[in-house]
Amino acid sequence: MEREVELVVVGGGAAGLAAALRAKKEGIREVWVLDRNERPGGILPQCIHTGFGLHYFGENLTGPEYIHRFVRKAREEGITLKLETMVLELTPEREVRAVNAYDGLLRLRAGAVVLAMGCRERPRGSLLIPGGRPAGIFTAGTAQRLLDVEGLLPGREVVILGSGDVGLIMARRFVMEGIRVRAVVEQLPYPGGLTRNVVQCLEDFGIPLLLRSTVTYIHGRERVEGVTVAEVDEGGRPVPGTEKRIPCDTLILSVGLIPENELSEGAGIRLDERTGGPVVDEFMRTSLEGIFACGNAVTVFDLVDHVTLTGERAGEAAARYLRGELPPPRRVREVEPGENVRLVVPQRITGEGPVSLYLRVSRPLREVRVKVGERSFPRKAVRPPEMVVLRLGREEVEGLGEKVPVRVEGLPLER
Fold first, then answer.
1. Which domains does the chain have, with CATH numbers?
2. Distance CA 323, CA 273 (A)
């Protein structure tokens, strides 16, 4: 099937649906959302815990409750949801090629495209852990789907490698289902998830957290029988003589997320090595005209509320582009991550509107001053897992130079 569509959104999670709804609100009549899953919502339908919507709705919702509001609204607004549809290719001319079982091959010539593919989990293969290939090794998201959607127990005695948010939440879920969590093992000297998840999921349930440690061997032939855990030095190398074996039948990996950007790379969109996602400005414009990106496809956010807001920003900008109200920027300022800053989004600022800067720090600090150019923003404390959000008005942006250094100063935070 071939046809022209005003706006194509790739990805039907929180960012994609927020972009589609905002574009529809801005007057775009034909909006298509393409998603490869059998149901819309991305990862949220399997996130049955609370903690969603505190900023966006001012309510404490579960993942399914949060995304249901967007799915229901999208259907009410007449947005076309193409599910079980795999997008194969995106061209610089905004032609989207996709395939599904009921339409066959789709060739959509889009007036504008919003990329909202989300992110994927880092697999075992990237960790290079010695050992066999026994059953019982899962990523945290896969274990979450098995338990919360399929109703299957992945194991009886679990070790979790990595302390990302999904891993912390699954540690609590395992205990609630009668599964023994032997330990959560983290290579860094601080947890990798939000502080509230460390407290509510580990400390409140008495689950051990082993910092400055890693798994050095996986035991078992047919099924996992245990893992060897060792302490690591400042360079992340195992320290000889500190090894200990922990018996278990399941190893859960919560070792980071990677933005999904094979489509972006194939189209020739400029990517940021720090974030793994496209380089964008405050309107979520990528380096290709008429193509926008948002949500976890740009960088991995810690809160779905921020994901939603970037989706709305991209949807509004795409609508303005389609109406001819979003001309090429006259002046571009490059944002440069500096001292104690791991990444910043957006990476470019045009100064044509207010800017929300999202940044992650390199290490925990207290009594902090976040400096953007010559401006300074105080914070009590910052931690790498928790995104720092700075909002600059148009007047504040006007005072910035061609290069915008962003740095974070403060005292070490013990945690």
1. 2-120+258-328 (3.50.50.60), 123-255 (3.50.50.60), 333-415 (2.60.40)
2. 33
